[in-house]
Amino acid sequence: MSDIALSIPQARAARPRSVARVLRTIQTVSIFIIALVIVSPLLLLVVASLKDDRFQILADMGSFRAFWVSNPTLSNYAEVGHLSGELAFGRYLINSLIILVTTVCSGLIVNSMAGFVLAWGSLRGRAVILAVVIALYVIPQESIIMPLVIMVSRAGMSDTFAVQIVPWVASPLYIFLFYQFFTQLPKELLEAAEMDGASFFRAYRSIFLPLSLPALATVSILMGIETWNQYLWPILVTQTDYARPIAVAIATFFGQDSIYWDRAMAASVLMMIPILGLYLVFQRWFVSSFIGSAVKG
Amino acid sequence: MGKRLLQSLILSSALAATWAVAAEKTAIQVMHQGDPGFVAAYGKVAERFEAANPDVDVQFIYAPHDAYNEKFSAAVMAKQLPDIMELDAPFLANYVWSGYLQPIKPLIDKDLLDDMTESNIAQGTYPIDKDLYAIGLTDSSVVLYGNRKYLEAIGARIPKSVDDAWTREEFETYLEKLSKLEGVKWPIDTFRGYGIKTEWITYAYGPILQSAGCDLIDRKAWKSEGTLDSDACVDALAMMQKWVKNGWVVPQSAGTNQFYAEGNPAALALGGHWVYAEAVAAMKDNLVVLPLPKFGTKGASPNGTWIWAITKTSKHPDIAAKFISFLLKDKEYRAYVASQSGYPGLKSFAAESPLYANGGPMAIAFEQASKTAVARPPHPAYPTITSAFMQAVDEVFNGGDPKEALTSAAKKIDEDIEDNDGYPPFGDQE
Hints:
By secondary structure, chain A is an all-alpha fold.
């Protein structure tokens, strides 16, 4: 009798704990499944790039064999990685890296400066300029692409690195992002700097820019992805492999009659690595920027 | 001191001579598309051509297949047209009408002109002045590929020639039987995976409408309304919609091949001649090549492929033509194209291709060229015609009403022709 009386409260206490444990297990399993679903296309990409037969890749699609390679080989990477010849994907990759680094670095300087001037500058008609910048953002790229082609060809910029960098350095979206970030910082910082004799540019460079790491990270990642994935523009304004990026080169594998999945997969993995690296470098500030804007919102 | 001076002088003279030779080189630009195999093949031909003509520098401009027209438009706008351009045959009329191309008959080697098949001449000829503007080593066609095992299992008749092609009733009966056969997931693969950004839909499905007794446009009046939206066309497209609704057609999401993929989930394939090489490698004797079915009283099959033309802005049309002639005669290039089951556009190339000769495994495909081939409308409005038709087919395959979709497509085509005042002198031909 007494044993029964003692066991009842213990059972009541144990039940919530076991329910919590079950819920936690369900949660863990769910997260694991979601992660698997998200990662599986990337896994498939990497595995397929290690197969040496494009017909086998095709045959394996749609079954679990797509995620398994019995005789892995790096031959596809060797095939696409060389630096000269008609199919010099190594060369295209280097071109992409040059375009990415130059565009992002120039973009950070130009857009942050523009954002700072719009936030704290003393120029006339600031509000109007800001309205124009926002209005420019809604114009789709496709509608201006052909006039832009004519402009750059008349300027003699065709088939150069510059033609893929210069038109995309200044962007209404990134100017606005920097503008928003700078307006959230206290104006007293600028006043204190001016009282100490610092110029407007010095205040930007030495105080505001170092404080804007989350904005710099966000713009770097967004601009990096945008630049890295440019496809139509480089096709329109470049002629040879001199300055063409890898996104165009990969399109060679998707012919009218056949698709070279093996080499396309290897080139895609190579193409993915730099942008993944960029994300990993800036991830901490990128995430904090999002969290920050959510909390402040 | 004197010796060193002499050495310097000799070195400077040599450098100056080298520079002069380099400066004397004539550059010709070639715009093209193609997969890595063809890109590499063109590069090797250029190397051989430059070795034979040391004063010429061949420069390639590659444009991906799916963005070729955009690249071409950009080149036109930027006034940077190349000397030689590869173009898809049905777009020829538009390019000639727009003034981008020049006649090539006086420029190309005569033996090559005499060697062209009728279909090849047709694909490179502008219908208004009947002049030749482009030439190719190859042409193309679409056939019906079959899985012998499946066809024998349902007791299907195997046609031996184009005259013997399946009728619409036979074809639909076989599709239904195949849909119930074990091992068959889809009775037919129509390569919907090629999508609507290529020419595939107009190229391969257009002949089904033509065989059923209609067309994309009236080829005398150059008017689409009353033709593309006629009862025969609506009926043909409704028939194809039924195949899709019944689950007989491989969906677009399944990719570009389910016919010779492992397990052979598709029993038939409405595929281009280029499918043969990969299909026979995978299926061996189990592959059967059949003529396209007759969906009405007559058969119809497509033709036309990517061919070479010289632009009007070329400063060196003679050298450009010399390169095209060299390319079409190059033995190693021909061997590569033959290995890719290239469909002959030159009689000599046909003689070198046992695949297409009488009794050859693809003889039926070559027979179609002379008996049932219907060129896509050779009209400057073709870019609009193909785009409107492809959108209509895509809409119908996704459940849209065939009559409405075709009426809307016909209106779009006629509006474009009206907007361009009938593309004179096309309108004046009536």
